[in-house]
């Protein structure tokens, strides 16, 4: 049966098509977004018959209150092979609306969208933001791409590095709110990953402080040589000390590469944070996926779904396995890099200890010069401050790295559980 569109058909109402928080639903489309299948909850809430749904474009349930920029981002990401979440306001056949948090995942030959009822405080913020972006689209005549750019800019202002990070945060909040509403304990692995995010923010601050501290000392050897030229003949003790300090400080600065990735363009903590967001999304999505699979299997057992539904259950099972594998792999890579970071911090600390011995020699030489060393003291005091700052910063970095490793292990999916060991020679991990 072909659904005929008309203005009357597309009329929208202010009433909500309510559904219970326990209810989960999904739909599957082909690569063009044409509906191929779904579960009975989806059909009932949408208000259409299967004859009307199957073969119809998924936009049959699109509500006009949705900003076009949201769909632009969603399609952009899933076409790149990335499962993505979004708050979506849908429209039932009779014009009523219903909100969902949808996780859309690419599969062979198309996409699957799994939906749950959103109830978190994050959802309330999203609704207000959607109104603002819709108004902006209409008043400024923004294209979907321009609207998407405005949405991304707003998310950066809120502290999210990209849309993927926001969708990860949102689904984690929704799963926590869902657990609370259903009187379930919060998932411990999700909680560990959420605790990781502020810890990584702290780590990034310490790394930036480390980079800034080393930037400050670049001019110290030159200042030391200038002072030495006034105090002693060429090649004197202070000149030799400044030369040694320059050589060792260059070595230390080069070692800072262990704290950066992507050809030095990004700090390791930034890279880890993006992967943690991805792992958080995949783990929360896998929990949702497990629930919808269990619900679907129960409905299949009761013969409550249409013929051929076994195929949908098999697809959901494969997706669940893929989610679990990806979330575990992401966390293993994080554990790997944070272990390497700890080692780099320890190595750097040893190099700084060598620098510190040169600083002590400089102070001893200043003592030998007596009153003549007055011009050297500001340089020595600067070195004192630098070494105290660096030692404290490296201590905090190592402490934060150990905490991160513990949280990663606590968050590891069951199939990845076990003690993880880093092998420096191969960069591999074992259990």
Automatic annotation (TrEMBL):
InterPro entries: PAS, PAS-like_dom_sf, PAS_fold_3. Residues 39-107 form the PAS fold-3 domain. This is PAS fold-3 domain-containing protein. It comes from Celeribacter ethanolicus. It comes from the Bacteria.
């Amino acid at each position: 049966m072909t659904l005929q569109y008309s203005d009357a058909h597309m009329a929208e109402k202010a009433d909500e098509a309510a559904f219970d928080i326990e209810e989960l639903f999904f739909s599957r489309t082909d690569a063009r977004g044409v509906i191929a299948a779904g579960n009975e909850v989806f059909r009932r809430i949408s208000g259409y018959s299967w004859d009307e749904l199957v073969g119809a474009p998924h936009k049959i349930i699109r509500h006009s209150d949705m900003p076009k920029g949201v769909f632009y981002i969603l399609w952009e990401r899933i076409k790149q092979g990335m499962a993505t979440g979004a708050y979506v306001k849908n429209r039932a056949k009779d014009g009523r609306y219903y909100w969902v948090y949808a996780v859309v995942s690419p599969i062979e030959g198309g996409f699957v969208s799994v939906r749950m009822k959103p109830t978190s405080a994050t959802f309330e913020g999203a609704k207000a933001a959607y109104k603002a972006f819709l108004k902006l689209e209409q008043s400024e005549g923004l294209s979907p791409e321009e609207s998407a750019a405005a949405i991304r800019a707003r998310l950066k202002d809120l502290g999210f590095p990209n849309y993927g990070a926001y969708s990860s945060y949102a689904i984690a909040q929704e799963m926590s709110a869902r657990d609370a509403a259903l009187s379930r304990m919060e998932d411990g692995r999700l909680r560990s990953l959420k605790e990781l995010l502020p810890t990584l923010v702290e780590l990034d601050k310490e790394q930036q402080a480390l980079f800034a501290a080393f930037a400050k000392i670049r001019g110290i050897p030159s200042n030391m040589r200038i002072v030495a030229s006034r105090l002693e003949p060429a090649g004197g003790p202070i000149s030799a000390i400044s030369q040694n300090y320059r050589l060792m400080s260059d070595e230390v600065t080069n070692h800072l590469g262990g704290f950066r990735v992507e050809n030095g363009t990004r700090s390791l903590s930034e890279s880890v944070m993006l992967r943690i967001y991805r792992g958080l999304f995949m783990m929360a999505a896998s929990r949702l996926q497990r629930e919808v699979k269990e619900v679907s299997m129960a409905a299949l057992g009761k013969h409550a779904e249409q013929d051929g539904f076994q195929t949908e259950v098999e697809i959901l099972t494969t997706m669940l396995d893929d989610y679990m594998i990806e979330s575990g792999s992401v966390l293993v890579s994080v554990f790997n890099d944070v272990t390497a970071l700890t080692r780099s911090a320890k190595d750097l600390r040893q190099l700084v200890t060598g620098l510190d011995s040169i600083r002590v020699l400089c102070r001893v030489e200043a003592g030998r010069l007596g009153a003549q060393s007055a011009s050297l003291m500001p340089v020595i005091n600067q070195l004192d401050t630098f070494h105290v700052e660096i030692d404290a910063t490296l201590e905090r970095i190592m402490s934060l790295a150990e905490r991160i490793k513990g949280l990663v292990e606590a968050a590891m999916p069951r199939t990845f559980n076990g003690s993880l060991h880093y092998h420096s020679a191969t960069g591999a991990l074992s259990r």
